[in-house]
Design brief:
Elements: H1 2-12, H2 17-51, H3 54-68, H4 75-90, E1 98-99, H5 105-109, H6 116-129, H7 146-151, E2 156-157, E3 166-167, H8 185-196, H9 202-206, H10 213-219, E4 223-224
Parallel strand pairs: 1-2, 3-4
Length: about 230
């Protein structure tokens, strides 16, 4: 085995005799260092085992126990403070009440869940209607969640209500328009007026044949039966 190793080092790896001797000395010194380190560690552990005294250890433990394991005096106060901060975070931000018939885009955007896009849709739809007569009409705005309307109903006020009316006895054909008025219903009313004269009230309107009663009941808050005085 030794002869083969020497042959390998001498003729395969091309080490000289002096280099081989140097390597043997180096590996020998490394082996001695490893054995020395193992011996030192073993000696330390044996010393710790022989010097361990349970009575002294127990006395030292009893001496430091009150300092290390004593309860913190500020614990209850700290817990109360944490609970207080948690309650403060849970308090909802109070929203200001707004008049849905006069509020501008700034007022709408100030509400939670309403961005510039929704604010513009609400105001545009309000102008087409001529004003809102009840808060639930906001559910008709395209894309506006009915749940949002329900949750914010307490701060949404109608104010003066409808501000532009559909004057049946004065309006021309080109102006006889409203989001609630189906196409063709205006023709029915205008034909009746041409034959019978001005419509006095909603009860008279209600008696007209071919009238969509559901649509006109929905439109009722926007109707005005004032007759134009030509005198």
């Amino acid at each position: 085995m030794k002869t083969k190793l020497m042959y390998y080092l001498r003729f395969v790896l091309a080490y000289t005799h002096d280099e081989i001797k140097g390597m043997i000395v180096l590996f020998g010194m490394m082996g001695i260092y490893v054995l020395y380190y193992i011996g030192i560690e073993y000696y330390k552990k044996e010393q710790e085992r022989l010097e361990f005294n349970p009575e002294i250890w127990e006395a030292n433990y009893q001496e430091i126990k009150p300092k290390v394991f004593a309860p913190r005096k500020f614990e209850k106060h700290n817990s109360a403070w944490v609970a207080y901060k948690s309650d403060v975070k849970k308090l909802p931000k109070k929203q200001p009440a707004i008049d849905i018939n006069t509020a501008d885009s700034v007022a709408w955007v100030a509400l939670n869940g309403i961005g510039p896009g929704f604010a513009k849709r609400i105001i545009t739809y309000r102008e087409k209607l001529g004003g809102f007569y009840q808060v639930d009409q906001l559910k008709e705005v395209y894309g506006l969640d009915s749940i949002w309307v329900k949750e914010n109903k307490a701060i949404l006020k109608v104010g003066a209500g409808v501000y532009r009316f559909l004057k049946i006895n004065q309006v021309e054909w080109k102006d006889f328009r409203h989001p609630y008025l189906p196409y063709g219903q205006s023709k029915v009313v205008l034909a009746y007026k041409k034959q019978h004269g001005p419509i006095k009230d909603f009860e008279t309107l209600h008696q007209i044949q071919l009238l969509d009663q559901v649509a006109w009941r929905r439109l009722k808050p926007y109707l005005s039966f004032v007759v134009l005085d030509n005198k």
